[in-house]
Amino acid sequence: MVTLTMIAVLSGLAILTLWGAVAPRGQWRVLAGWSRSRPYASEPGPVAVGIHRFVAIAASIALVVTAASYYLQRHDLTSAVAATPKTALDVMWDDANPEVVNRVIQPYETTPYGLKNQPILRYQPVDGIDRLPSYLFALPIWNPPTIRDGDGYIGVSPDAGSTALDGSSIVVQVRADAACIPRAVVATETDKSVSIGVYYGRPSPEIGAPKVPISKCATDLPVTDGSTVLIPVPLDNKVGTRSVTTLKGDAIPLTKDVTSG
């Protein structure tokens, strides 16, 4: 909006100054002559016309310099923003600034009824005993304001002094509708693979509140929408060399750990 206003103002001033430089008498007739009873007899003399033309030319030059300076400043600012290096978290989790769901989860073995299966964007193995990778344990905790007792929020709070990551073997990244909460995780394991599904739903309404279908949750949201979380999932064994897939068998991308630990 500011840029469009600046362009409009500079364009208007440029037209006026160029007009004054090329046809000062014509400009005077249009802008001032109408207020005189005898416009042609009142036209400015050669000296006044020369001064008018000089001022118009000087103003035109000043406008060109101003416009060029404004463009260069905008260009430099845009280049600086584009050149800002990404952090390790940006690279690993796609600029999502993820937060950890600090809930101890007991995965289901079968698909829960009435919930929305959310796409899993990527995963990372976790060593809860040695607390690795260490950066995960320093990430902020996801604390949505809508959480309350009895709303169906997944899992239970960890014991005092511990976190859900301590007992997990893997974290999965999910970007989901901000109106919904994670309500269930399904995990099945074999010697060669780990299959995971994450299910979201609307919070269960309070007694007397209007009912909303719990599965009314959007999926495939862009980075700027919804909430992006990392959900710790406990497994019977470490991920190791096993493949990690969705419940349909599609491979889940492994995020590349570019942190120092």
How is this structure best described in words?
- By secondary structure, this protein is α/β, with parallel strands linked by helices.
- It has two domains: 2-83; 88-246, no CATH class.
- Helices cover 28% and strands 18% of the residues.
- It has four helices and eight strands, in the order H-H-H-H-E-E-E-E-E-E-E-E.
- Strands 1-7-4-3 form a four-stranded mixed sheet, with no helix packed on it.
- Strand 5 (181-189) and strand 6 form a beta hairpin.
- Helix 1 packs across helix 2 and helix 1 packs antiparallel against helix 3.
Task: Let me know the largest β-sheet.
Answer: 4 strands, mixed
Total beta strand runs = 8
Strand content: 15-25%
Distance from first to last alpha carbon: 45 Å
Number of discrete helical segments: 4
Low-confidence stretches: none
Give the averaged pLDDT, no decimals: 79
Instruction: Tell me the domain tally.
Output: 2
Helices and strands, in order, run as HHHHEEEEEEEE
What does the overall shape look like? elongated
- What is the radius of gyration? 32 Å
Please give the share of residues in helix.
Answer: 25-40%
Strand numbers in spatial order across the main sheet: 1-7-4-3
Structural class: alpha/beta
